[in-house]
Design brief:
Elements: E1 3-9, H1 15-26, E2 31-33, E3 42-49, H2 56-60, E4 64-72, E5 74-76, E6 85-88, E7 95-96, H3 97-106, E8 109-113, E9 122-123, E10 126-127, H4 128-133, E11 143-152, E12 158-159, E13 164-172, H5 178-189, E14 193-203, E15 206-207, H6 214-222, H7 233-236, E16 242-244, H8 247-254, E17 259-260, E18 272-275, E19 281-287, E20 294-300
Parallel strand pairs: 3-14, 16-18
Antiparallel strand pairs: 1-3, 2-3, 4-13, 4-14, 5-6, 7-12, 8-11, 9-10, 11-13, 14-15, 17-20, 18-19, 19-20
GO molecular function, one term: tRNA pseudouridine(55) synthase activity
Catalytic activity: uridine(55) in tRNA = pseudouridine(55) in tRNA
Family: Belongs to the pseudouridine synthase TruB family. Type 1 subfamily.
């Protein structure tokens, strides 16, 4: 059993909890998730099985999309609804649709984010949430993240009340904290804010409609149809550039050969998937750091007997 099983992560479980439960359901150990989803967040969590665990990082690094809710009026320790209130301000003014759209446009593109204290980012070898649980505030690294698009999902022309809530959809790159984005939206509007709801609707090539719940997975294991729900590891790499090779080159690749970069991939930065004539991914290559015009293997995915 190998490939990618898209799981609908329920609320209240960590990504590690999901892996632990699936190991029991599927009766296999070689399982890995593709990036941490907070316990309060639901939605798409691709699970890698068997050899597909080798490509988990490429799903983690791919684009994500979320639908969530911002609440204006108070902020929390965790930047979501699970934390304690740290700042509260009566919302006495209303906002027009144009004002909200202007803020969302300002936060689209490459922006700077400081990760929340309750996050898995490491500082001095220790995760931020470990400091937070001890009541220790440490300096956090500000970093660039990419917001591809933000869409307002609320049709109102005027937003008022105490608090004010509205829903949004965001498409973003690696390392983006949607919790922090919700706080930033509030800051632009002059109010404390937090993310009051969030569901991940897409991760790399996988969408909500591809996902199965734990109950559905258990039923498929019982009726022996689970293999039909598992996607090949090639699906997990579908967003990456490809280089199709012949059998002779494939044998060299299996032995870790350094290859010339084909002309159409010379400007590509990042991983390149080497695939056989029948579209089987056999290795991940990257530009050689010292030898211009050459690329070297990062991971070999299949050996000779599997190609």
């Amino acid at each position: 059993m190998e490939g990618v099983l898209p799981l609908f992560k329920p609320k209240g479980m960590t990504s590690h909890d999901c892996v632990f439960r699936l190991r029991k359901i599927l009766k296999m150990k070689r399982i890995g998730h593709t990036g941490t989803l907070d316990p309060d967040v639901t939605g798409v969590l691709p699970i890698c099985l068997g050899r597909a665990t080798k490509v988990a990082e490429y799903i983690t690094d791919a684009g994500k999309a979320y639908e969530g809710e911002v609440t204006l009026g108070f902020s929390t320790t965790t930047e979501d609804s699970s934390g304690d209130i740290v700042e509260q301000k009566k919302v006495s003014e209303s906002f027009t649709r144009e004002q909200l759209l202007s803020v969302l446009a300002k936060l689209t593109g490459e922006i700077l984010q400081t990760p929340p204290m309750y996050s898995a980012v490491k500082v001095n070898g220790k995760r931020l949430y470990e400091y937070a649980r001890q009541g220790i505030e440490v300096e956090r690294p500000t970093r660039k993240v990419m917001i591809h698009s933000i869409e307002l999902l609320d049709e109102r022309n005027t937003f008022s009340g105490d608090p004010i809530r509205f829903r949004f959809r965001v498409s973003c790159g690696k390392g983006t904290y949607i919790r922090t984005l919700a706080v930033m939206i509030g800051q632009e509007l002059g109010l404390p804010a937090h993310m009051s709801d969030l569901v991940r609707i897409q991760s790399a090539a996988f969408n909500l409609e591809d996902c199965l719940s734990f109950d559905e997975i258990e039923k498929k294991v019982e009726d022996e149809s689970i293999l039909q729900a598992i996607y090949p590891l090639e699906t997990a790499l579908s967003h990456l550039p490809k280089y199709r090779i012949n059998d002779t080159v494939a044998k060299k690749v299996k032995n870790g050969a350094v290859l010339d970069i084909p002309d159409h991939l010379l400007t590509i930065k990042g991983p390149i998937v080497l695939e056989t004539a029948d579209c089987l991914a056999i290795a991940i290559y990257e530009h050689h750091p010292q030898k211009e015009g050459l690329m070297k293997p990062v991971k070999v995915l299949r050996n000779d007997s599997q190609v």
